[in-house]
Amino acid sequence: MPELTFFRSVYSLEDIPATGLPEICISGRSNVGKSSLLNRLANRRNLARISQTPGKTQSINYYSADGGFYLVDLPGYGYAKLPKSRRKTFSQLVDTYLGGRRELIGIIQLIDSRHGPVTGDFDMLEWVKNWNGSILYVFTKADKLTANERAKRKNMFAKEFSAENYVMFSARTRMGVNDIWAWINKTLGI
Ligand code: GTP
Ligand code: MG
User: Fold this and answer.
1) 27, 36, 140: which to mutate for ligand 1, most atoms within 8 A of CB?
2) Structure pTM?
């Protein structure tokens, strides 16, 4: 797997570099585990900032994968405690990124495995469904479920989503990390 290094934080659309290299972004509610997933993919503890406080990642953060493509950590949605003005800015930033970014070829959409989609997820899931690129649904924090619960969840999810495109994942136990890399490579055509 490629080495991931921090490239740039983007706070406004003019700051988004036109690289011409493919990008895969990581989307999901605040606190669902986006940054933890990135660190696990990188096999590094502190590449992306993790916090107990939701809403930590407030910029679009670019990580370079050996200079060949980018993984992009998006700010989480559904975080109600931010001032309204900031919330609007962030969602505008993300909306425009998702809607207009030519380099974007894949979306890793995170959902908490314990709850499934909840308020805030539905708009995003609806949007993602109609998107033209590759989508991987990743169900996070699977270590918090028993093996039995995971099997039940899997069956539920398989009915709801394309079975080919979802992964049960735990940043803690590494469950699913190889499947996520396999999907990334497939999406990149490697
Ligand atoms: P924002 O940047 O606020 O949008 O959050 P995020 O989606 O990047 O979540 P982050 O990775 O910061 O994780 C949020 C919390 O969930 C942290 O306390 C993590 O330690 C915890 N967490 C993330 N992944 C896992 C996991 O697989 N298992 C368990 N048990 N905890 C996890
Ligand atoms: Mg984060």
Assistant:
1) 36
2) 0.92
